[in-house]
Structure formats: structure tokens, C-alpha cells
Amino acid sequence: MTPRLPPVLSALDLPLVELQCATLDGELYALDQCFCPIDEFETIHLRARALGMVLDPRIIAEQLSAAWVWGALIAPPRRHQLCVAIGARTRPHPSLSATLREVVIDPSDIDTVSGVSVTTRLRTVVDLLRFSADFGTREITAVSMLMRDGSLDYADCMNALTARRNLPQKRLALERLTQVGGSSPRAHAS
Question: pTM for the full model?
Fold first, then answer.
């Protein structure tokens, strides 16, 4: 019996050249900076594991990186968007192209997916509405999918924004939510 490969491989497991050759041979496929056997389906858990291979446990995937883990984006962002709770002194692995912010975050805003901390779908929606430099098709699609998959409606997202006093970028987020509301089938569901 042939031993089974782990579901996610990185340069920590095998030399990068071997992983790339196995990809060319059709035995593996690339998943962000990692590789997976071709018989592994790309799932939320597999994406989280691939990202988690190079993350300190205190680091939280947020915004577009969280949207990718949740399956609301097909491809990971070029630069991962990560955060840590204020006071957590850590940095992402040097091989990972990423931005890291210190944020105030409640434990209820964090889910754990295959051992990796990821902002909840609601927190991810709120952050994308507030902080996306561009709010184009990719962001609108991601927000709509997060709302649908998280069973969130327009009111859930609006309440999350309006419940917090002095929230930076609240007005912009509410305008963007209204923009998404017209394209999200769950936004007007009763």
C-alpha cells in the first residue's frame, strides 16, 4: 500500500522544486503558496490549512484573505490581509506576502477553521465594506457570497455597523452595503 500524502504540502515538507515538478506531472496542484494532491477537493478547510502553514496562531485572516478562506473568492489576494489583537506581538512568516494590522477585535468576531483564526463572515463583510480601497466587482461578489453563505441579510449587516458608536468609515460602509443590497438575493428576503 502506497503511503498517502498529507492534504497540504509546503516547502517545509519537500523542496519547492520537487513540489513544482509534481505539479507539472499532474500529481499536485498549487493552492496559494502550498500544494495539494489532485484528489483533494479545495474546501474551506484546505484553504485555511494552506494559509495556516505559515501563520503564527495569534494571527487572524481578515478581509480578502478571510473571504478567500470562506470560499467567497476563487483566488487568494496577492497580498494577504491579516490582523492581530492589539498587544499581540507577532509578524507573518517572511515568505508570505501580507499586510498585518493591530485591531480591536472581540473573540465573537473570530472563527477557527482547521486551527486557523479567521474573522467571522459578518466581521469579514463589515471590514470589506469599511476598508476596501476599491469596492468593485470582486468585493461586491465576495460580500454577497459571504452574506448568502452566512445566512446574513441586509438588516444583520446594517445592525452590525450601526450598533457601534464612532465606528470609522461607517458612512462609507453603509453606502456600500446599500450598493450590495440591490445585488444580493438575501438582502431583501423576509
Answer: 0.90
